């Protein structure tokens, strides 16, 4: 019998803000000052006197015991003072100051840090995640104080199987891995890219309730081709050009073998790999390990949900998706991931073939419109290259403005990494769109790399557009009390649920069916009323709730494909007997929530 009732009883307090129920004990093998210096166990001034006695802490702290609520209020006060004190200073200075204060708390007291993050996710996500995380990566060598996560370098070849045991945590559930080769739209940042796995895993804890003791950010340092970094005397990574070919793959292979030898049930998310390695590693590992590529697959699911939302926003049935003309700007891992998933979804729709589905899309890269006449056509882009006969009035390499004027698309979707590429002329050309409610998705990150700003989109393309961006922008005041809603089309709406669903189902692999289920769950999360207002994605304040739903959908898809091997005490048979609601409840009960647990010392 599976243990829903038992889970429910032991976790009943989790949804309350400051619970009065007593959480279960936590075993600690340290004593005294070592506990104060371990952010996982540290409660700062919050250690009760009895615990101070038990753990050898008496005299190591000021005598007064401060409650969790008071500590929380004190931290928020200092955060708000910092906001006041930095008013008027350059954005970069303010963003880094905010990141520093949060990072210091993260380094000192994880329970308080994650509670603050969960309760203030709308304000804090832009600090610990996109866009500030980009700035942090750019300045990493200067900001570095203490390590977080693991670093495997080309110099560690042959050692990884033993190195993996240097990680102090007994169990690891979620790993986010990068080689730093394409950090957001900022290019190759080498070892400094470690900030991305750290930020993504913070979102895993906040949104998916992954236990922070069981997450592992990883940097695979195979060198960098960033000349500026190679010349920087403070650069902390390997000073050598990136490994290529088999040499590169052998490093990734060795890492993956080491991880799955120690933690066979872990989920690995590949993040911000340059395109060739993003696709290659996905193909190489997806049928061997429980892994996915967030930039290809997570992004695709979020974009597809947005495209379906756009159809609904036009007041049309979803079946009308087959009539949408969509211009995708950027033929990289993200752009092609979106195209592949959208075409899969379209070809499942009644009466639509894959060829017909492809005809709806126009793909543009740095050399313009991609056609079959392209010399050195990238094989990954080839399925979406246009035949000359299908693009009357257009030609190979046609520019974005020309394409938009000619095609009059319903949707203009940017994943190019190039800030401002949706120029005033391009946005104005979208006014001639055949759609009653044209959509503009400026999905590149961070903010400077967005294809256009929200203000410019509403100003030039018109007030009746639907707008989404990868990095957050404020809603736009359109005057007369009207508001242009800004959606954040960021893979953060899906990757936490994909990882969580895979983990708690004990899925062997992450399949297209599971990813499709995640995307459909996000698409159907919004009400018609929201969609009519141009709101395609939930508020980030609801991300924990959404993630539980997505996790449930992924779990059910894994069960349907007979890939769910179970998790903890719950086996595959129990999953099969769960209703939809029960799967979501089960997922929720597996979500960690930050409260101080009584510490019990064990030698
Ligand atoms: N919002 C999200 O959730 C999300 C997810 C993944 C990636 N992204 C963003 O998407 C961007 C691209 O990521 P990627 O992994 O696909 O990168 P990539 O380097 O693999 O691909 C970039 C593509 O853009 C094209 N391009 C470059 N300049 C162009 C121009 N002037 N006009 C048209 N196309 C141009 C390139 O030819 C290439 O095809 C990054 O900024 C990244 O931050 C956002
Ligand atoms: O990191 C993000 O904010 C989204 C995405 O994974 C990206 O690479 O831009
Ligand atoms: Mg990414």
Automatic annotation (TrEMBL):
Where along this sequence does the record place binding of a divalent metal cation? 271-272, 295
Annotated Malic enzyme NAD-binding domain residues:
296-559
PROSITE patterns annotated for this entry?
MALIC_ENZYMES
Q: Does the keyword Oxidoreductase apply?
A: yes
The record's listing under Gene3D superfamilies reads: Malic enzyme, N-terminal domain, NAD(P)-binding Rossmann-like Domain
Q: How is the cofactor bound?
A: Divalent metal cations. Prefers magnesium or manganese.
NAD keyword on record = yes
Homology family: Belongs to the malic enzymes family.
This one is known as Malic enzyme
């Amino acid at each position: 019998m599976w243990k829903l009732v038992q889970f429910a009883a032991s976790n009943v307090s989790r949804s309350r803000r400051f619970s009065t129920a007593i959480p279960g004990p936590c075993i600690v093998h340290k004593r005294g000052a070592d506990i104060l210096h371990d952010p996982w166990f540290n409660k700062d001034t919050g250690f009760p006197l009895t615990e101070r006695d038990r753990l050898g802490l008496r005299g190591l702290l000021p005598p007064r015991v401060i409650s969790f609520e008071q500590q929380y209020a004190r931290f928020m006060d200092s955060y708000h003072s910092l906001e006041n004190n930095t008013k008027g200073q350059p954005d970069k200075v303010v963003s880094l100051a905010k990141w520093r204060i949060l990072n210091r708390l993260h380094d000192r007291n994880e329970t308080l840090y994650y509670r603050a993050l969960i309760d203030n996710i709308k304000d804090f996500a832009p600090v610990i995640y996109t866009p500030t995380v980009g700035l942090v990566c750019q300045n990493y060598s200067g900001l570095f104080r203490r390590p977080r996560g693991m670093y495997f370098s080309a110099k560690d070849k042959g050692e990884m199987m033993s190195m993996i045991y240097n990680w102090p945590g007994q169990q690891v559930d979620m790993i986010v891995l990068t080689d730093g080769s394409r950090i957001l739209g900022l290019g190759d940042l080498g070892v400094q890219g470690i900030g991305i796995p750290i930020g993504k895993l913070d979102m895993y804890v906040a949104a998916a309730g992954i236990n922070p003791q069981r997450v592992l950010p990883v940097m695979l340092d195979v060198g960098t081709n960033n000349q500026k970094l190679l010349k920087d005397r403070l650069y902390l990574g390997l000073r050598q050009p990136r490994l290529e070919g088999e040499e590169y793959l052998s490093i990734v292979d060795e890492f993956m073998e080491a991880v799955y030898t120690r933690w066979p049930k872990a989920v690995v998310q590949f993040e911000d790999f340059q395109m060739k390695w993003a696709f290659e590693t996905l193909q190489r590992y997806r049928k061997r390990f429980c892994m996915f590529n967030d930039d290809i697959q997570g992004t695709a699911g979020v974009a597809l949900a947005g495209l379906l939302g756009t159809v609904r926003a036009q007041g049309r049935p979803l079946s009308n998706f087959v009539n949408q003309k969509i211009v995708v700007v950027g033929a990289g891992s993200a752009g092609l991931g979106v195209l592949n998933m959208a075409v899969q979804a379209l070809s499942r729709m009644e009466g639509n073939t894959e060829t017909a589905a492809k005809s709806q899309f126009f793909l543009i890269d740095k050399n313009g419109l991609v056609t079959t006449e392209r010399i050195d056509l990238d094989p990954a882009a080839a399925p979406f290259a246009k035949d000359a006969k299908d693009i009357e009035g257009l030609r190979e390499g046609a520019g974005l403005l020309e394409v938009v004027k000619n095609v009059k698309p319903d949707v203009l979707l940017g994943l190019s990494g190039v800030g401002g590429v949706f120029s005033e002329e391009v946005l104005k050309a979208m006014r001639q769109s055949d759609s009653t409610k044209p959509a503009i998705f400026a999905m590149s990150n961070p903010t400077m790399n967005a294809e256009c700003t929200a203000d410019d989109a509403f100003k030039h393309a018109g007030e009746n557009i639907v707008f989404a961006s990868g990095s957050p922008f404020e809603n736009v005041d359109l005057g007369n009390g009207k508001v242009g809603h800004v959606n954040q089309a960021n893979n953060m709406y899906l990757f936490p649920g994909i990882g969580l669903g895979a983990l708690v189902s004990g899925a062997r692999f992450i399949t297209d069916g599971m990813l499709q289920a995640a995307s459909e769950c996000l698409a159907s999360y919004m009400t018609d009323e929201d969609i009519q207002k141009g709101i395609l994605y939930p508020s980030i304040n609801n991300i924990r709730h959404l993630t539980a739903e997505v996790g449930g959908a992924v779990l059910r898809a894994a069960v349907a494909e007979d890939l769910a091997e179970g998790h903890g005490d719950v086996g595959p048979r129990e999953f099969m007997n769960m209703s939809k609601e029960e799967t979501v409840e089960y997922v929720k009960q597996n979500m960690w929530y930050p409260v101080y647990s009584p510490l019990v010392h064990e030698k």
